[in-house]
Design goal:
alpha/beta; 26% strand
Length: 833
């Protein structure tokens, strides 16, 4: 059998290590990772190899040549432009012939039993066999779902947590019949998981999974690269480590010179001609590349270094990764997690803090202290973004330097000169972070229009009107000690997952655009945003019934800056308003966020005492709210969603209402009973807003985050300021008291519970729940939802925290409790196992 080794990747997430070296040539225990793959193929009798190349192709071809020095025959095809995983293989069609062939990545590390894989493919008589493995965190991989016979039924590439239905992932190792190549045109881009395999399934061809427990890891980022070396040293993967095992766990290649006064600690791999001088301590998960010198009394531990490095007298390296041709002078220190690119010099006595990346050819002066470039401690080893945005403890995790770098990453993802709107709430910490983000944006040539302290709905509006993007900084609604940064696209809604990943990659690589002094961005402060927002709001309402209704409302502004907008609009519409907490005070706003229920009780009391038509509580961010009817009953959450949907459908028969999958079925039935059309959506906020932006004729949305509505007739985003007045307008058209509409709302028996589940167990939990209920009425649209006995339950992983949410609806409280309890008990058992 012939093999195709995929070796065209740029390895951008491994920068600065791959700034000048293709990822397949990155060494693992002193041998390029692709050479380990070639060794594996040869051990299983596969000696005819075709390598697909793109980035720095000449270096790979120069290293392997014809393959004779490695016991194989090597041929090459080169992509002029990236053609995807399948499009690259198509280039090798003439070489592969008409027999089944193996496809394997040249930048993954594995000791997979290829013989067993090939035999499985032959037995299954499948068109394609995909090697599968179960992993703790499937987010960065293609999730694969199989039936009880091992045949694949579904693919999902780079899923979100709500789309994690299994922890079985595609390793990118395939055995394929040559007919697969007929599904492509030469020179066009195709991906196996996104394009070819789904088409094979659609046409009814057999695609099977080969589940392996052999070692496999995708060396996708710097942490994984370091761990792959540790695993190889620890014997977790069967590799041919260069040299001889001079002592248990210590490998030495030829020419090494070790002073008798040096201390070597297993596990350790030393390349050719390594020198370790007296008093030096080397080892404990350490790799030293060829011709590396460790001077007297130096300490190099848990460190991966490439060739031609020098570590000076009494230098200290711990848990770092050092590329080739680096000089670390005497008494210098490099901290854990730091990565140093090729050709750098660290001066005498310099200190390089943990988790910093130095790009090639940098020089650190003697005695300098280089501050860490990310945060104190690694909070985001794999991703920056949570369910809503980027959040962290103010001035501890989310530091000024972090915010500046985030601004640079966002700006680099855009074109020079594009306008970005920045805004914030009035908290001093948010102001600092906002200014640092502005500095980062300006430094990479982005023009910034700073809206300063305004409610988030106004920021979304201004971005939609004038910006190519936006950034809003505020106190995190879920943690009063944290700052939340939300990034907006040109329509004013949160950026999509693809944009988040692009920004993350730039952030972690520190691959920022550099601009000349005359090309930095321009900072300006737009005027009249509030006036334009208010004017367009009134135009969207076009109220007729409201001024004649003589409403009297009690509005609690929660010490937020919504009081800048609503009083003037309500006055214009003739609403008699009693305002509570209608000025900004951050100290009191913190109390408001922490004791919201107390303020709702205060609102109930004032509304009843004054005989008002309704009470309104506006949350600090201006995106969510709660109502109190004229009898003092609180309307919030799902009940508020039901009320708004009812009024919209009564005002406009046939209205389309989109509700999240977490909403009780009783609400959907009520909407249908009054002539509305129901669309189910995913529960995350971004999906809600994206649908609103796409289908502007839909009148109201409910969000899974506090169930606030969206009225896209004004803007496709959560906007409590507009929604509150719209509710008043709809109520005025009804000609009824609010409590009279309240009685039209249905009853439901609904439960929700959040269970602690470690990140590494989430995928396993979802796979198990999905497989155990595979024969029932299952929906895998957002999480795993199972319809059972007239009710349903939903298991949905949280995107930001190590938790899994369980929702259940039954025909009675007891039924809902029983359904929820059975699912919770099963998940707890899985976590404890």
């Amino acid at each position: 059998m012939k093999a195709v080794v995929m070796a065209g990747g740029e390895g951008s997430r491994l920068r600065p290590l791959t700034s000048r070296r293709p990822k397949p040539l990155a060494p693992v225990v002193n041998k390029p990772v692709m050479e380990h793959i070639v060794d594996l193929l040869r051990r299983h009798g596969i000696t005819e190899i075709v390598a697909t190349l793109h980035y720095l192709a000449d270096e790979i071809e120069s290293y392997f040549g014809s393959g004779t020095g490695f016991g194989v025959s090597m041929r090459y095809v080169v992509e002029d432009t990236p053609l995807g995983t399948a499009g690259a293989v198509k280039l090798a069609e003439d070489i592969l012939g008409d027999e089944p062939f193996l496809v394997i990545s040249g930048d993954a590390l594995t000791d997979l039993d290829l013989t067993a894989l090939i035999e499985h493919h032959a037995r299954s008589e499948a068109t394609a066999t995909i090697t599968l493995q179960r992993v703790a965190n499937p987010l960065e991989f293609g999730v694969v779902i199989t039936d009880e016979n091992g045949r694949i039924t579904r693919f999902l590439e780079k899923p979100s947590w709500g789309e994690i239905f299994s922890d079985t992932i595609n390793t990118g190792i395939y055995v394929l019949d040559p007919v697969v190549l007929s599904y492509m045109e030469r020179g066009k881009s195709y991906d196996f998981s996104r394009d070819i395999f789904p088409r094979l399934l659609h046409e009814g061809r057999a695609v099977t999974g080969f589940v392996t427990t052999d070692y496999w890891t995708d060396i996708g980022n710097l942490q994984q690269y370091q761990q792959a070396n540790y695993d190889a040293l620890g014997g977790k993967v069967n590799l041919e480590i260069p040299g001889v095992e001079a002592k248990p766990g210590i490998w030495m290649a030829e020419g090494c010179r070790i002073d008798p006064g040096a201390q070597l600690i297993a596990p350790l791999s030393l390349g050719r001609n390594v020198v370790v001088e007296a008093g030096a301590v080397v080892g404990g998960e350490t790799v030293l590349g060829n011709a590396t010198i460790v001077a007297k009394n130096a300490s190099v531990q848990r460190t991966i270094s490439w060739a031609d490095c020098y570590f000076g007298e009494s230098s200290r390296l711990e848990g770092c990764t050092i590329a080739d041709r680096n000089i670390v002078k005497g008494h210098a220190t490099i901290g854990t997690g730091t990565v140093v690119g090729s050709g750098c010099t660290i001066g005498t006595g310099a200190v390089v803090r943990p988790n910093l990346r130095l790009w090639p050819d940098k020089s650190v002066s003697s005695g300098a202290i280089v501050s860490m470039s990310l945060i104190y401690g690694i909070k985001w080893p794999d991703s920056l973004f949570g369910a809503i945005g980027v959040s962290g403890l103010a001035n501890v995790e989310l530091t000024p330097e972090f915010a500046t770098k985030l601004g640079q990453a966002l700006g680099t993802s855009l074109k020079p000169g594009q306008p970005v709107m920045t805004s914030r709430d009035a908290h001093p910490a948010a102001r600092i972070v906002n200014r640092c983000i502005i500095s980062g944006l300006l430094s990479v040539g982005i023009n910034v229009e700073d809206l300063r302290a305004i409610p988030l709905p106004l920021a979304r509006y201004a971005t939609r009107m004038s910006g190519d993007g936006g950034v809003h900084t505020r106190v995190d609604p879920g943690d009063p000690n944290a700052i939340l940064i939300e990034m907006l696209d040109a329509s004013g809604i949160n950026v999509d997952k693809a944009t988040e990943r692009k920004i993350e990659n730039l952030f972690f690589r520190e691959d920022f655009r550099r601009t000349g002094m005359d090309e930095v961005g321009v900072l300006s402060f737009p005027a009249r945003t509030l006036e334009l927002y208010t004017s367009e709001m009134l135009g969207a309402l076009k109220p007729k019934a409201l001024p004649a209704a003589n409403f009297r409302a009690v509005v609690d502004y929660g010490y937020g800056n919504a009081s800048l907008v609503m009083p003037r609009v309500l006055a214009t519409l003739g609403v008699d308003t009693v305002a509570l907490d209608a000025y900004y005070d951050e100290t009191k706003a913190r109390t408001f966020r922490s004791h919201r229920e107390r303020y709702i009780e205060q609102l109930r009391t004032v509304t009843l005492t004054l005989g008002a038509d309704l009470g309104v509580l506006v949350d600090h961010d201006g995106e969510s709210f709660a109502l109190v009817d004229d009898l003092g009953r609180v309307i919030a959450g799902n009940r508020l969603l039901a009320l708004v949907s009812l009024m919209v459908c009564r005002a406009q028969p046939g209205a389309r209402i989109a509700i999240p999958i977490t909403t009780p079925n009783a609400i959907g039935k009520m909407i249908a009973s009054v002539g509305g059309q129901v669309t189910r959506t995913k529960s995350d906020r971004r999906s809600m807003m994206a649908l609103a932006a796409k289908e502007r004729e839909t009148l109201a949305y409910g969000s899974g985050f506090k169930q606030e509505p969206i009225f896209p007739e004004f803007q496709p985003a959560f906007d409590a300021l507009y929604a509150i007045i719209k509710v008043m307008e709809l109520l005025a058209k009804e000609g009824r008291k609010l409590h009279e509409l309240n009685v039209f709302l249905p009853h439901w028996f609904f439960r929700h519970r959040a269970l602690p589940v470690p990140w590494e167990r989430k995928g396993e939990v979802m796979r198990t729940i999905a497989s155990e209920h595979a024969q029932e009425d299952v929906e895998m649209f957002d999480g795993v939802r199972v319809n059972v006995n007239g009710g349903w339950f939903l298991v949905l992983p949280d995107a930001s925290d190590p938790t899994v949410n369980v929702y259940a609806e039954g025909s009675s409280n007891e039924d809902a409790d029983r359904l929820l309890g059975s699912v919770v008990q099963r998940i707890e058992a899985l976590v404890e196992a």
